[in-house]
């Protein structure tokens, strides 16, 4: 597993398997086994009188148990007691493994959903990036065309202004001659 998935699994808060028996602990997955092996709510059976009690109450029960002082426990009872304890332990282990498998499956489904979401998001971002690149290319072309148009317009304006200036310059001496002529005519009239 990836480190972050392992961290998520280890930080997952899981109810104790003895929840139905009164334990209200929620512990991280990595410490669940330690807690359940010492949980005070774990159901136990008195080895003497076979009364049902919990791990936390066993010491008190043994103090008041009427059969605890019996000298000899028949071998058949011990064997039956051991077999009962083994079957209870196996049932608890199976229950734990089932819950663990369910939680693992749930985490796997969540991680798969997150992966799919990230892949979709990445695909969407790549499409947006490609669209931005196309837009940038179009804008660059438009800017180049505008610059070329501006340059050619400026050249045309400069050529037009030069032609206008030239016309003005060529007319200027003609005007001066006309003005001189007018002055001469005025002078002649005065004489």
TrEMBL record:
It comes from the Eukaryota. InterPro entries: Znf_RING/FYVE/PHD (IPR013083), Znf_SIAH (IPR013010). Signal peptide: none annotated. The keyword Transport does not apply. Transmembrane segments: none annotated. Residues 11-67 form the SIAH-type domain. One of its GO terms (molecular function) is zinc ion binding. Keywords: Coiled coil, Metal-binding, Zinc, Zinc-finger. Residues 75-164 form a coiled coil. This is SIAH-type domain-containing protein. It comes from Macrostomum lignano.
């Amino acid at each position: 597993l990836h480190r972050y998935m392992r961290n998520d699994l280890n930080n997952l808060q899981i109810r104790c398997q003895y929840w139905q028996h009164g334990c209200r602990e929620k512990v991280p997955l990595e410490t669940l086994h330690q807690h359940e092996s010492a949980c005070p709510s774990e159901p136990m059976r008195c080895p003497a009188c076979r009364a049902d009690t919990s791990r936390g109450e066993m010491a008190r029960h043994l103090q008041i148990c009427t059969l605890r002082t019996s000298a000899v426990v028949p071998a058949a009872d011990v064997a039956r007691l051991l077999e009962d304890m083994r079957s209870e332990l196996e049932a608890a282990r199976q229950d734990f493994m089932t819950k663990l498998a369910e939680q693992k499956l749930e985490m796997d489904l969540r991680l798969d959903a997150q992966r799919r979401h990230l892949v979709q998001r990445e695909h969407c971002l790549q499409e947006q990036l490609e669209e931005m690149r196309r837009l940038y290319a179009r804008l660059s072309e438009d800017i180049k065309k505008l610059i070329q148009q501006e340059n050619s317009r400026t050249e045309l304006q400069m050529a037009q202004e030069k032609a206008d200036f030239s016309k003005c310059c060529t007319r200027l001496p003609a005007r001066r001659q006309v003005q001189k002529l007018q002055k001469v005519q005025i002078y002649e009239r005065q004489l």
